[in-house]
């Protein structure tokens, strides 16, 4: 027995290299360190392709539309929005939750995947973190203007004032202020700390003095010494460890905005993890939506490989199913609770209410459509992945829509029932926020490395100082020396 | 580069280049064993296990972060108790205005804990690794600018008590340096 | 570096021997304790109610460890992990105890033991309400029938009277006769219509039963589609098949892989673990709905399944660390498990301390903040008298703050002795968590109709200890048997290299 297996070992493929077992390389075609630097820095150093301009011009237009409608909103008053009694929270809060949710995947990819030692994160985390920051900027617009008198927005901060009034710290809305601003700050710090070594790369390659000075300024004089790296790595680990519970807390606080109330359809205990799972779900979809074209456009196929897309599709499948679990729990408990208001709220949501179409859109996009990712061919077909990712983007918007206006439109008394539809101002703001997001993202592509160069280098097999021993082991098994 | 013409230049140290991470790792072990003090390796990415090879301990940054976090918690709790219980008590949603409202203060406490800890991390990091520092003798070397691309470098400063003009150079080539350069101030 | 371990050198695995005395002791404790427990049950029938909670507590605690073991196994496969291959067999051995624990749970499920009705009030209440409603319905229907019959008699009398009146008329005019005859025909029609009505209609009785059911127990009536005995049994079967089945299949493939080293088994385990995560989650969620949330059928929380899942994964990881340390102390697994594995397990324990606290706090917080009558009951009970101190001491401080602080220290996670101590603490806290979930319901439930409602049943803790020791004995016996039955680690797993040379 022992002899035959020994013989098999030498002739056949060793089980650790068998199909479905062997780890796929994170960087394809055995690219060198220099190639990685050239390819990623090249995006910033070379002229942008035409398509960049084709996308940039409309996004600036969208941004201008945003500015215009905000101006119109502030100068006229929030009455220009379609909201009224009983639906006092409409597209504004839907968009806020939508954008903040998108932001979460960025921190998640960076922080949680870092803590769980998922090395494939290195190709995606930079773009995802940038996405986080831009999405939080977009998100912040909506509650900021939702308060009505925008110039009084400083009332949100606990600043001693002549009226002697203090904020109500028992209010979920104030928690939101703290959660979102902390989230933005920490995400920015995390992103910047991650950028430092790559800024040094750009500095050291810069041909013009201006570039050298600007990148050099932001690189802070990084020298890549191990006496720096060891504290840097610790700082990165600590920031990841801080950012992970932070992501959970931010969307948890957002879910508290609804769940601490007594409105049927809003108050349910599963909201915190359900919102977090939903945010991760929607965020991964947005990362795929952004990264698939970038990969193609800038020739990053060897760095952002099928393995990455496959993993992200699987996470979408998993989180989509978790979100489905939460939908089913809500429905089940609304039946099981036997509470008339609960039951009616969900009855109206799925059967008899005015917004049932939104519920079915949401359910199809979020729960049904990602199930196609059970199949490998679907995860490997970029068009399928792209389309499903966009279904998820839409589905997550509908989820917030289903939660917010649907629950409000049917108040406890039938006399307070109403129907809400958005005005052109709200629609322009929504489209404009996409313009702002895309504009910022395109500028990021233009000026900063889209993939974390130093981190990708660190996950190459030959970056491990013990790599030769592994190589010997592998060669030995193949009968070579 | 610009200083190489001068005859009375002051030596900063040697900069040696190695083939790959493995070679640098083993060289670092030997430099460590020689008990050099003022030296460092420069790599495009953090090399796994290099702290051990250089004989460096664990980073103590986490202590600072703990302090930052505790400060954040105390600030938040203080702010909330002071304003909600004594300065401006408001009864909302049937919640008392005393100590038993503490669950409602958790979210903000948590956020400020994280915020202060994150500030402590980043400020502590910059203090420990002494950045920003835009000017450094190493930047005078054209070889050095390759560290951020694909070069694995090691430098030993002339200020090190064990440093010797010739012996250290020989030692560096013994441990496998592919290229050695003098760096001047 | 020559320090790389070659997985091929570990192909023969490691067999667990010894501890036979311990195994016998466990068997003795398990069998003896169980016999004593059930002798006491039948000797002192008055304590049946109190004892039912004791048995549920012991079963749920050990089942949560086994289900947690199954979760860790499935997670390891589904995430395509490599770190934990050397400890995966321990998880599998834990998971395979699920069917055993279902057998141990049988006394709870079979109504004749008397536990089921004491634990889940909706069973007796539903039965009583149904039979009462049925009686009422029969009575109402009987009254209705009597009324109807009286109506028929009356109608017949009217017909007879009309005929008699007609006959008594000596010479009626044609018009008068016509009218009289028409009157008779109509009265006859009415009588025959009344006679034709089916008065023994079962459908009427069931409709009336429903009506009375709704009137006397509206909540239970609304839940009748879920809370009924036949569906309940179907669900119990589903839980056993899903949880037990997955555990059995995954372990059998893993053991087969030990024998032939065929990567096919590896691929199957991975594929099926992904696919079966959803049935697994569904089964565990509804199991804890039925067994624990059902202790008070009026209470509900959508978070409940997640809460119990987080506790199970947490307790199970603590148990795995303890088991691993004991095995290593006895001289096993020394060559394959390193401090790096301890470090990862410590980190996972920390992650689940946090996750558990997050879920527990969110659930508490939302119910506390919204303050809706039907939901707050759960926490009001647990904040009354003895339970208030218990909650703060064990659930808030003991279950979260203590292990959280201890596990934050990186060095401690790499020292088996310290991590062992922390894990023992965590496991103890998991025991107290399960106790906290189940027991506060015991006093108020059992003394609901007494003069004074009590929070605690005096002396009942003795049964809790006895039940716990008995189930622990059974659990320990089968666990040792499973440890013996295969290599202690998957010795031909294709990921063995990776796990042996783990570096954090």
Provide structural commentary.
Chain A is mainly α. Chain A has a single domain (26-148, 166-458), classed as Formate dehydrogenase/DMSO reductase domain (Formate dehydrogenase/DMSO reductase fold, Up-down Bundle), CATH 1.20.1630. Chain A has helices spanning 2-11, 33-45, 50-76, 91-115, 125-146, 172-205, 209-219, 226-259, 271-297, 306-336, 340-352, 356-368, 376-380, 382-409, 424-447, 453-458, 467-477. In chain A, helix 4 (91-115) crosses helix 9. Chain B has a domain at 61-128. Chain B has five helices and four strands; from the N terminus they run E-H-E-H-H-H-E-H-E. The longest helix of chain B has 27 residues, at 61-87. Chain B starts with 10 loop residues before the first strand and ends with a strand. The mean pLDDT of chain B is 89. By secondary structure, chain C is mainly alpha-helical. Chain C has two domains: 13-121 and 228-500, no CATH class; 126-219. Chain C is built from 20 helices and no strands. In chain C, helix 12 (304-329) runs antiparallel to helix 13. Chains in contact: A-B, A-C, B-C. Chains A and B meet through helix 2, helix 6, helix 8 and helix 16 of A and helix 1, strand 2, helix 2, helix 3 and helix 4 of B.
Portion of residues in beta strands of chain A equals under 5%
**So what's the CATH class of chain A?**
Mainly Alpha
- Based on CA atoms alone, the radius of gyration of chain A comes out at 25 Å
List the total number of helices of chain A: 17
Low-confidence stretches of chain C: none
Shape of chain A: globular
**Helix coverage percent of residues of chain A?**
55-70%
> Per CATH, which architecture of chain A?
Up-down Bundle
The protein's oligomeric status is heterotrimer
User: Any idea what the radius of gyration of chain C is?
Assistant: 32 Å
Average of pLDDT of chain C:
91
Report how far the terminal alpha carbons of chain A are from each other: 25 Å
Order of helices and strands of chain A: HHHHHHHHHHHHHHHHH
Question: What is the CA–CA distance across the termini of chain C?
Answer: 17 Å
* Poorly predicted spans of chain A: none
**Total number of distinct structural domains of chain C:** 2
The major beta sheet of chain A can be summarized as:
none
Class based on secondary structure composition and strand pairing of chain A: mainly alpha
Shape of chain C: elongated
SSE class of chain C = mainly alpha
